[in-house]
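Backbone-to-sequence.
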């Protein structure tokens, strides 16, 4: 009996000591961390996986400008091909020509997952922003799939088809609003609706421009509606700008402006008289045929003489020279011409 009581007391004392043992605080922290770590990662990872990237706004605007210039260059070359045809033929189909060129650029760039010429020069490509999800390790923030087939088709419909339809609607209601009152009123109402739609579109485009300048995403409404964002094609490619073409264009522009300024002076008789003493043929003025006009070298149809030297000229040749400069000198004797008179009788 005593042994049983001793055993019972010893077991109760050992159980009480086991229940009174408290695990270390460090082990509790480890257990709690292991239990809550998966939940914490599930909440924190999506917000940290999307690396914020900043695409240069200047690059995006320059890319759009380069695409416009490329389309203009293709149009200029195509117009030269039809230059020998009937004048004004391409003017009637200018909208179709622009749509065809835009379709060609879209077909050989966006449709085949390649950047447009302007985007390629600026190291940009389109990315489907709607499909950007958490996908493992993200190194640069520029990864992501390209546009889907539906996005490519809608891009073509909006840019090529939308621009063509809008141009044709404007030309139709601008020039064919009807002759009678009923058709005229219907045409005015349709034209008023078109102008209102255009006004709303411009206001939305202006709002999108302000948002683009602030955030640097989506240059136009079409890109924003489709979720087509421009990102860098290569993260390690620097923007290389060559100013050789620009310098050449500036030099030729300045040279052409200088020629346009100097040609009227070089063609005037005063400059000819200035360089006449340095000419090899010094006796041409005295030994020339007096019956020919010194300017056009033809027989004067309406002969007029210059006073006071009485050399014969064509009326139009002499009058234009006298009207062009007040100090016109005779092309034969270099004497200032003060007046002109009919040359039927030469004194």
């Amino acid at each position: 009996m005593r042994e049983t009581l001793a055993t019972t007391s010893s077991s109760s004392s050992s159980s009480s000591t086991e229940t009174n043992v408290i695990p270390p605080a460090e082990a509790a922290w480890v257990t709690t961390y292991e239990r809550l770590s998966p939940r914490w990662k599930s909440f924190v990872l999506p917000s940290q996986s999307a690396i914020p990237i900043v695409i240069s706004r200047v690059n995006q605007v320059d890319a759009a400008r380069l695409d416009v210039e490329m389309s203009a260059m293709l149009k200029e070359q195509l117009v030269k091909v039809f230059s020998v045809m009937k004048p004004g033929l391409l003017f009637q189909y200018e909208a179709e020509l622009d749509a065809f060129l835009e379709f060609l650029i879209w077909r050989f760039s966006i449709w085949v997952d390649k950047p447009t010429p302007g985007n390629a020069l600026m190291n940009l490509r389109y990315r489907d922003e709607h499909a950007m999800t958490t996908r493992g390790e993200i190194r640069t923030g520029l990864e992501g799939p390209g546009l889907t087939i539906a996005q490519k088709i809608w891009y073509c419909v909006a840019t090529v088809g939308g621009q063509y339809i809008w141009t044709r609607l404007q030309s139709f209601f601008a020039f064919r609003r009807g002759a009678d009152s009923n058709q005229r009123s219907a045409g005015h109402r349709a034209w008023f609706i078109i102008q209102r739609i255009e006004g709303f579109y411009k206001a939305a485009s202006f709002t999108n421009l302000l948002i683009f300048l602030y955030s640097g995403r989506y240059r136009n409404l079409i890109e924003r509606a489709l979720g087509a964002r421009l990102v860098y094609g290569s993260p390690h490619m620097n923007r290389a700008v060559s100013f050789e073409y620009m310098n050449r264009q500036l030099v030729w522009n300045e040279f052409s402006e200088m020629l346009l300024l100097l040609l009227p002076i070089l063609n005037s008789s005063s400059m000819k008289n200035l360089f006449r003493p340095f000419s090899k043929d010094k006796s041409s003025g005295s030994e020339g045929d007096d019956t020919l006009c010194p300017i056009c070298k033809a027989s004067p149809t309406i002969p007029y003489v210059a006073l006071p030297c009485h050399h014969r000229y064509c009326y139009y040749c002499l009058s234009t020279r006298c009207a062009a400069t007040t100090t016109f000198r005779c092309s034969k004797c270099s004497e200032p011409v003060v007046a002109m008179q009919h040359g039927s009788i030469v004194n």
